[in-house]
Amino acid sequence: MQKLSYILIVVIGLIFAISCINNKTNVNQLPASEDNALKGIGLLGTYEGNLPCADCTMISTLLSLDKNKNYHLRYVYVGKSEEVFERTGKWQVDKDILSLENVDYNYKILDNQLNQLDLSGKEIKGDLADKYTLMKIK
């Protein structure tokens, strides 16, 4: 009888251990894509760049992203006007794409830089492609 009790305790212990292992979440699983963008490459901060312009010298651009998911975009059409244009709103990330509320184009998130995408959400190609970049200010 004592031997049967011992075997029963061992079996119950094994069943319990197996059920605990199966119910564990995968601790090595990567966080959601937005978390990767925020934590992995430090998305928050200020970015600047001089983007190409069809009818001016360049578009001097400054974009700030804060931890409350607010953005502040400031740009000037250099050589055309001294007027400063500003937009504010919320930002969000889906995979490696940054979207700004009330802005028609998005940005691809890279390490310490944002690459502006075309209006259809695709990477800009051609001779000026590398000019559509905002670099993170350190």
What do you see in this structure?
It is a single chain. The chain is an alpha+beta fold and 138 residues long. 22% of the residues lie in helices and 37% in strands. It is built from 2 helices and 8 strands, in the order H-H-E-E-E-E-E-E-E-E. The protein has helices spanning 2-23, 33-40; strands at residues 45-51, 58-65, 70-78, 84-94, 97-100, 107-110, 113-116, 133-136. It has an 8-stranded antiparallel β-barrel. The longest helix has 22 residues, at 2-23. The radius of gyration is 25 Å and the shape is globular. Mean pLDDT is 81; it is low at 16-31.
List keywords for this structure.
alpha+beta; 8-stranded antiparallel beta barrel
Describe what is shown at a glance.
The protein has 138 residues and is of the alpha+beta class.
